[in-house]
Amino acid sequence: MSGTTLVSGGAGFIGSHVVDALIAAGRTVRVLDVLLPTAHGGSPPWLNPAADFVRGDVRDPDVMERALAGVDAVCHQASMVGLGVDMRDVADYVAHNDVGTASLLRAMATRRFRGRLVLASSMVVYGEGRYQCVGHGLVRPGPREPSALAAGRFEPACPVCGAALASEAIPEDAPLDPRNVYAATKVHQEHLCASFSRECAVPVTTLRYHNVYGPRMPANTPYAGVASIFRSALAAGRPPRIFEDGKQLRDFVHVNDVARANLLALSSTEPVPGAYNIASGDPHTVGEMAATLAAACDGPQPIVTGAYRLGDVRHVFASPLRAGVALDFSASISFQDGMRAFAESSGGRDILSTRAG
């Protein structure tokens, strides 16, 4: 591909790493970002000077006219992320994620865009992960009951017999079952892009990120990820405070690996349509993650609080095998190395990259 790649949300945590990877690979890149105050305290210092920067909102047709000029690939990273604070966030999530995506697709259709589109999605689209019951095989637990959570019963039970379940890696063809507002908007983004793909004959590669962490991760906001919240606590000399019992399983994947997955999807000889889990393939508990960060910081040991959030799910992790076959993707940064580097990083500085150089 010889034209320009547009990265929406390219000043953000993941988007800026995608921009860096594309520029390092010799691509011409344009960044579109509205620089939301909830995510940015101004213009971030890591904005790559080799990229053309357009400050504006994907919902503004005039902005999109400029942003899409000469573009033959779009990497849609712009999104309001996290569980939010409460249901008063719902309109903001829908406005930024759903209306924003619809506006981008409208602008692409108006220009008769015929390149390729990569969508940043999330493992949250699955809701709860994949579970097996000894007696009933593969089952899908319903939403967890507040009374059970309040009593400290965090593990989902078989919806048929009530027996304990075994969690396993969730595949891309699992039913989508969003359990919070953010998750619902990510499902809608996928559906909107699928409709656009059918109507306009544009191939869409959907990358379902698992728990991404690394340098430039938002900190000290209601929308920060759990790894960033724990790191901020440790930097302030406070112990990380863990919800539930800390045994929730997640797949923590480093942002450098996520950026490389985007590069592979954008630079493959032929488009690779479909949805792909972008994960390390090495799940760990939230408690392990907190303890690893605390050890790397020589900080106080985590505290397990037993608190919970209704929008959370218990276990969700995946295998990256399908992405390995289609995109030649596999994670290269181990959990221990990545968490240690994240604990030591400062602002936009990437300890892993520094060491590698």
Distance between the termini: 28 Å
| Helical segment count | 11
- Helix fraction, binned, reads 25-40%
Provide the gyration radius in Å: 20 Å
List the helices and strands and how they pair.
Layout: E1 4-8, H1 13-24, E2 28-33, E3 52-55, H2 61-67, E4 71-76, H3 90-110, E5 116-122, E6 130-133, E7 137-139, H4 146-150, E8 166-168, H5 181-200, E9 204-209, E10 211-213, H6 226-235, E11 241-242, E12 249-250, E13 252-254, H7 255-267, E14 274-278, E15 284-285, H8 286-297, E16 303-304, H9 321-327, H10 335-344, H11 351-356
Parallel strand pairs: 1-2, 1-4, 2-3, 4-5, 5-9, 9-14, 10-13, 11-16
Antiparallel strand pairs: 6-7, 6-8, 12-15
Characterize the structure shown:
The protein is α/β, with parallel strands linked by helices and 357 residues long. Helices cover 34% and strands 18% of the residues. The chain has helices at 13-24, 61-67, 90-110, 146-150, 181-200, 226-235, 255-267, 286-297, 321-327, 335-344, 351-356, and strands at residues 4-8, 28-33, 52-55, 71-76, 116-122, 130-133, 137-139, 166-168, 204-209, 211-213, 241-242, 249-250, 252-254, 274-278, 284-285, 303-304. The protein has a seven-stranded parallel β-sheet, sandwiched between helices. The longest helix is centred in the N-terminal third of the chain and has 21 residues, at 90-110. The protein starts with a strand and ends with a helix. The model is unreliable at 347-351 and 353-357 (pLDDT under 50).
